[in-house]
Amino acid sequence: MVEFMMPFTIDVNLQNGIIPNAPIVQTRHLSDLQGLFADSAAESALLAENPILYEVYEATENPVVEGHLRYSTTVIYPGKVGDEYFFTKGHYHAIGDRAELYLGLLGEGYLLLQTPAGEVHALRMLPGTAAYVPPYWGHRTINVGTENFVFFACYPADAGYDYASIAEKGFAQIMVERAGKPELVANPKWRT
Amino acid sequence: MVEFMMPFTIDVNLQNGIIPNAPIVQTRHLSDLQGLFADSAAESALLAENPILYEVYEATENPVVEGHLRYSTTVIYPGKVGDEYFFTKGHYHAIGDRAELYLGLLGEGYLLLQTPAGEVHALRMLPGTAAYVPPYWGHRTINVGTENFVFFACYPADAGYDYASIAEKGFAQIMVERAGKPELVANPKWRT
After folding, report:
1. Prediction pTM value
2. Rounded distance between C-alpha atoms, residue A137 and residue A84, angstroms
3. To the nearest whole angstrom, how far is the Cα of B128 from the nearest Cα of chain A?
4. Please, are residues A173 and A187 in contact by the beta-carbon 8 Å criterion?
5. H-state helical runs in B73-163
6. Nearest to A11 among B12, B111, B129 (CB)
7. CB contacts, 8 Å: B103 with chain A
């Protein structure tokens, strides 16, 4: 017997990315990402201020069941730790073969993707950029602009999160400011 | 051995919904939906002109494989057949437990949902409305405004399409103009 879940809507403010009635809002301060930035001295210094790096507005608590979708908006604030741009923690999916889709809404950023072996790709995202995270790629987003970088995300509800691999090893490459522009460079903290 | 598909982006024009480099563009004329509107005389008369009702820009040809996602934009033009607003064909998913997500970008419309038994829900969509099609619900979108109604859609790549059920039976209720406003009324052509 099929159970019919009630259809529903939730409003996304396309002007700032906020979902006013989001059932879950995650606010990530620098302290939540401690140890992930390459410049440890700059990170320590900024921890006194402990700025908010980003917020995630989860649009739903749809069942963690194959076939369902979840979706959210993410607002990454502009800023740097040393010369490294603010980013999200980044994760792999617990169920590795689950993809994810991003749609840029505001600002300018990068989607950084990595295989477990350390192959890295960086995709530039502007408003209207639909960026695809294929199965098995770890992914992190980065604000390289001077305004908030905002995107919408949709993913299979059962994808799950593996944050530990990124927390332990980081990304093989990082996005830093060089001569006023974002540039991908080797991560001195990367451990294979 | 895991195969890593190359990450990629495609640009969506958020001002008009068009995906300029879409690998597939579907253009649906009235003749493609013949027999689906309630007012057969009005439909026949309008067939001489055979207007375009809507266009779908498929953003990807991602593999039809569990875990992958596909995504598209749909542009429904404003107009009516008799007093019934232009709509998309509508379908169930071939794999019934696959959900779908819509994000309104421009204009004003409705997402019409139906169970196979004929229970109908209509969700109003404006720019920023994230509307969820839970598993097993048939779904159709309708432009009730005077401008193009444009939305972004994301769905599991293996969801598939079942158009036949809607083509044979239609929706139990239809969206018509009454005193200048959209109203949901019983479909005289509905067959249980």
Report:
1. 0.97
2. 22
3. 5
4. yes
5. none
6. B129
7. 12, 103, 152
Query: What's the one-letter identity of residue B100?
Result: E
Q: Does residue B1 sit at the A interface (CB-CB below 8 Å)?
A: no
At the topology level, CATH places domain B24-186 in: Jelly Rolls (2.60.120)
Structural tokens at position A113: 């993707």
In this complex, do B4 and A134 lie within 8 Å of one another by their Cβ atoms? yes
Q: Give the minimum alpha-carbon distance from A18 to chain B in angstroms, rounded to a whole number.
A: 10
Question: ipTM above 0.90?
Answer: yes
Across the interface, do A98 and B136 touch by the CB < 8 Å criterion?
no
Residue in A2, A59, A68 closest to B99 by CB = A68
B32 SS3 class: helix
Find chain B residues with C-beta within 8 A of A6's C-beta.
Answer: 121, 134
pLDDT tens, A75-126?
999 999 999 999 999 999 999 999 999 999 999 999 999 999 999 999 999 9
How many other C-beta atoms are found inside a 10 Å radius of the C-beta of residue B45? 12
What is the domain partition of chain A in residue ranges?
24-172+180-186
What distances in angstroms separate CA A166 from CA A74, A87, A90, A132, B46, one per listed residue? Answer: 19, 13, 7, 19, 59
d(CA B24, CA B12): 14
Q: Domain A24-172+180-186: which topology?
A: Jelly Rolls (2.60.120)
What is the pLDDT of chain A when averaged over all its residues?
96
How far apart CA A20 and CA A18 sit, in angstroms, is 6
Q: B96 touching A, CB under 8 A?
A: yes
Length of chain B: 192
